Amino acid sequence: MPPPKSVLPATWDLPAEFRQRVGEKAGRQRVMAADGHLLLILHRPPKHNDTDRAGRFIWRKPDGTWQASDLGSGSQVLSRHLTEFSEVIERYDGQEDRATTIAEYYNVLEGMSPVHRAVRNLHTALQEAREKNPTDRDLINARDRAYDLERTADLLVTDVRNALEFATARKAEEQTAAAHQMATSAHRLNMFVGFFFPIAALTAIFGTNLSHPLEKYLPPPYAFFTVIGTGFILGVILASYISGVSRWQKSRIKP
């Protein structure tokens, strides 16, 4: 039977059980150990809006040498892997410092969240690897550095979430203030219209000429001032009514 398909490098002289336990995708970040071999199945730093996780494999041979699937060989392969995560976190940290709008904060949070999860799982995998090989200093140093990256990522995600919540609350407050200002302006306009509506109605009916039909009953210019005065009185009454209705409506919506 042909050997099962595996994403592990075909040129690596790995124990057979490693290839049997790894399928066509890397899967979750984890550690395998057998016959003195140590295999770290890790993820590369996630890219923005990238739903698939690209695997990276780091192999520790029984003689203590290291080799990576795409980072070369030597004792620095773990450091190179962690450096990539460090650079991504620093980039998002700079974007968070420059962010001023809700959309910008959301973009940082959207990109940083998978990085945060990847670093957390990376730290767990390195801790497991360190327990399987407690004397390897490269693993100890990598585990400690991964912890620092996880904490930095956690603080950054927390800061971005807090900033996003604050920006959202401030935007809602600004919209509430603008709505209140518009309601106040509309109320003032209603008061203005209500005050002058009776005058406009009376003058439209009786006219505003100094020579007035009512002068048959009232000597001039009393008829003119009677129409204007009546309009002002009715305007005050109507404006007071509008103001009272507005206060009643506000009292109904108060908690």
**Unreliable sequence segments:** none
Q: How many strand elements?
A: 4
Structural class: alpha+beta
Largest sheet composition? 4 strands, antiparallel
> Looking at the structure, what is the overall shape?
rod-shaped
Q: What is the terminal-to-terminal distance?
A: 75 Å
- How many DSSP H or I helices? 5
Question: Could you tell me the strand content as a percent range?
Answer: 5-15%
Secondary structure: helix percent? 55-70%
The H-and-E topology, N to C, reads as HEEEEHHHH
Compact overview of the structure:
This protein is of the alpha+beta class. The protein has five helices and four strands; from the N terminus they run αββββαααα.
Please, could you describe this protein's structure?
The chain is an alpha+beta fold and 255 residues long. 63% of the residues lie in helices and 8% in strands. It has 5 helices and 4 strands. The chain has a 4-stranded antiparallel sheet, with helices on one face.
Task: For this entry, give a set of tags.
255 residues; 63% helix; alpha+beta; 4 strands; 4-stranded antiparallel beta sheet; single chain
Describe how the helices and strands are arranged.
Elements: H1 16-21, E1 30-34, E2 37-43, E3 55-60, E4 66-68, H2 77-98, H3 102-132, H4 137-206, H5 222-253
Helix pairs in contact: 2-3, 2-4, 3-4, 4-5
